[in-house]
Every structure is written in structure tokens, then in C-alpha cells.
Amino acid sequence: MAPPEVWDTDMLMGKTGPAQGKGGAEAATKDRTLWGIPGYLTAEEAETFEKFKAEIEKRGEEFRDTIYSFTEEEGECWALCRWLRARKFVYEDVIKMIEEATVCRADAKKDGFYPDPSGALGCDMALYFAQFPQLYSGVAKNGAPLFISKPGVLNTDAVECITTLDGILKLHWYIMIHDFGDRLRAQKKLKDDFKSFECVCVLDLAKLSTSQLSSRTLSIIKEQSAIDSLCFPETMSKMVIVNAPMFFSATWGIIKGWLDPRTANKVSVLSSRTSWEKKLKELVDVDQLPSDYGGTGPNTIETLDASSPGDMKRLKTEVLYLRGSGSVKADIADGESVEIAVWTRSNAGATFSVTDQNKVKPDWVSGVVVKHVGNPDTSEKPTETKLTKERIRGPAKLKIKADSLGGRFTSYNFLVSLSIY
Fold it and tell me: Please, which of 91, 126, 141, 420 could form a disulfide with 308 given CB 3.0 to 4.6 Å?
């Protein structure tokens, strides 16, 4: 590891060092993206930096670890300025924020920020991301990892069949500390000029409707955002919101007025593909941009499939909303095989069978009862039942049929998962 960078007051203000001759604090008044960045501080901001630095030396390990959440490889001046920017260099507010963040992350830290994410989540990550696609894919021109999230296709019913909000938040801690952190450190080793530990985010709102913005959906987004804003401040370089529906674009005009100009200027809301492709190509080289977003890189579905465990090729999932009976159909090609599992919180349960759509081949599975034993409350982990004792080999045209064991006046949710190899 390279020796730590130590910036004195003159370097922080751009009088000497890497930012010398670039205009210092005056340049930051013209380009707000430079505000609070080492080399562009005012004398007062540099003084606050030094006071903050001295306070860190007085505090214990927990306080320091909170600041260096991405380890000290981030660099002293860059990490400290990130926290200072988050509270506009108001010293007392910065200290209070770090104390609150230390408390917020304490339980997660005790468990090492969940190095086994599937264990913390209660299901494989591939199954979760099939319901709420989120992924890192390539890097932006400034070296920042490119993160893509698709809340427009978030299936909350499916998510509640497989995990809990607690599990989702544990996964988020893993992603931020281990996954995102590893990517940032790797980029710093690759690029000498990669200093700001940030990401470029694409928020894809395709298929988003007002009915999807339920309290359950918003609670997932709200809790994750709360962790990020408190414990990982100033880690967004740019956000491009694409495929924004008309109702969101109108709402954004109001929300933008509530934000400080610097934060608002980081966000672009674009509805037309022509507009957002152009913007993304300004930020990301085409070979790093997924093909489904206008680049030549792997498309997001391929990237998510590649993260599937073991030799699994792809994953097919579908929620059955049972009030009586229902079924899922799937074609398994020659040379492929499949394992089938069902997840639920239903105490009433249902009987499942796996048959040949053409009624030629004998039934593979019959009479398997899938039922949740325990509290159906969403704070408790759901139940997984494997329908197949061994893989079903293709070619096969499958029909997974379910008959509810509950009353006809209540709908019960079951997530059918087909792991295809």
C-alpha cells in the first residue's frame, strides 16, 4: 500500500500541491462540483478540516472506523472532506452525524457487515435481484463504478415471499462495505487520478406506476437511503433518472426546489431514450455502458445471470396469487435441466404438482404441500419448499400447478422459482 497522503492547509486551499494554479476556492464558486474538494477549500473550511482531523485523533477506534468506512485507502483528505461536505463544513453538525452513524452501523459491524450476503438475506442474491434488479456494470469516465437500479420493476409481493426488510438491509450493508468498497479500492489501484470514492447511478423508472409506490415499496427504498445518507455520505457523483413517467417528472420539479443547488445539479431526469442515452454517453464510455442502455457492454440481464450461483444459467420466477388454483408454465430446452422451489408466508398452504403440459410424460411431482409454519408477519423469515428432489432434464414442457388449501375469499401468495442449468 502506498504511504498515506497528508495535505497541509496550503494544499487544501490549492496554494501548493496537485491543485496549485487551478483557482482554489474562487474556482469552486464558479463550478459547484469543486466545492468542498481538497485543493478548493476556503481558509475557514481548511481550518475546520484541521480541527476535525485533530478531533479524530482524540476519539476511539469506532469513531475513526465510521469515517473510514471504505478503509484508510480512501485517503485522509478525501474521506474527511466527504464527511465535511455532508454537513456543509459546520463542525458541530459533522461530529453529531458521525456519532449517529457510529450507532447506526454498530450491530452490522459486530457481524462483519454480513460477509455471507445470501445467509443474511435468507435466500440467494440472484433470487432477490430477480425481483428488484440492481447491479454494478462497468465504470464511468471518471473511474466511478456504474450502478443501475430498476425500482420500476420491483415486485414487492415477490420480495415479501422470500425475505424480510431486515434481510434486505443486511444485504445493503454487505453491498456498501464489501462490494462497493472493493470496487472503489480496485479503481484507486488502477487509476492514479481516481480520488473521490463515488458512483454514477442510473435509476431506471421504466414500468413504474403510482400503484407501485406503496408503503411497502417505499419502506425498502427509504431504509436503504437512510443508511446511505448517514453512513456513506457524498458517494454519489451523478444520478441519471431514465424512463421517468410523466407523474414523476412533474413531482421532480417540486422536489428539486427543496434540494440545495449542488445536490440538485447532480441529478438529471430524462424521459426519452434519445435524451438519456446521450447523457449516459457523456458520463460513460460505450464499452462500459450496457447494451440495453445504448452501449456495447454486456446487457444487464446477462450481468445478473452471470452472478447466478454455481452452474445455473438463468432464473425464472413468478408469483402465484392463489384463490383456488393457479399454474406456472415453463419450457426447458434439450440439454437443460431445472430445479423448482416455492416460497411463501401462507399458513393455509397449497398442494403443488409438476406435470407435462402435453400430458404425455408421467408427473414429475405430485401432492407436495407447501405451507409456512410460523408467524406470517413480514418480519419473520418465510418458508422455502423444494418441489424437485432431483433436476428435471429437458426437453420438457412443464406445468407447475397449485391448489390452495385456504378459503376462496382470501388470496395467498406463492413465489415459484425455477433454477435452470
Answer: 126
Q: What is the 3-state secondary structure (H, E, C) of the chain?
A: CCCCCCCCHHHHCCCCCCCCCCCHHHHHHHCHHHCCCCCCCCHHHHHHHHHHHHHHHHCCHHHHHHHCCCCHHHCHHHHHHHHHHHCCCCHHHHHHHHHHHHHHCHHHHHCCCCCCHHHHHCCCHHHHHHHCCEEEEEECCCCCEEEEECHHHCCHHHHHHHCCHHHHHHHHHHHHHHHHHHHHHHHHHHCCCCCCCCEEEEEECCCCCHHHCCHHHHHHHHHHHHHHHHHCCCCEEEEEEECCCHHHHHHHHHHHHHCCHHHHCCEEEECCHHHHHHHHHHHCCHHHCEHHHCCCECCHHHHHHHCCCCCCCEEEEEEEEECCEEEEEEEECCCCEEEEEEEECCCCCEEEEEEECCCCCCCCEEEEEECCCCCCCCCCCCEEEECCCCCEECCEEEEEEEEECCCCCCCEEEEEEEEEC
What is the C-alpha separation between 162 and 4, in angstroms, rounded? 44
The pLDDT value recorded for residue 56 is 97
Cell numbers for 226? 437512510
C-alpha cell at 421: 442449468
Question: Quick check: 1 pLDDT over 50?
Answer: no
User: For the chain, what is the mean pLDDT?
Assistant: 93
Burial of 126 (0-12, 13-18, 19+ CB in 10 A): buried
Supply the pTM of this predicted model: 0.92
User: What average pLDDT does this structure show over 33-56?
Assistant: 97
Q: Examine the pLDDT at 256 and tell me if it is beyond 70.
A: yes
Show Cβ contacts of residue 209 under 8 Å, excluding neighbours closer than 6 positions: 245
- pLDDT surpasses 60 at 362: yes
CA-based radius of gyration for the chain: 25
Judge if the upstream peptide bond of residue 245 is cis by omega within 30 degrees of 0. no
Binned at pLDDT 50, 70 and 90, residue 332 comes out as: very high
pLDDT bucket at 219, cuts 50 / 70 / 90:
confident
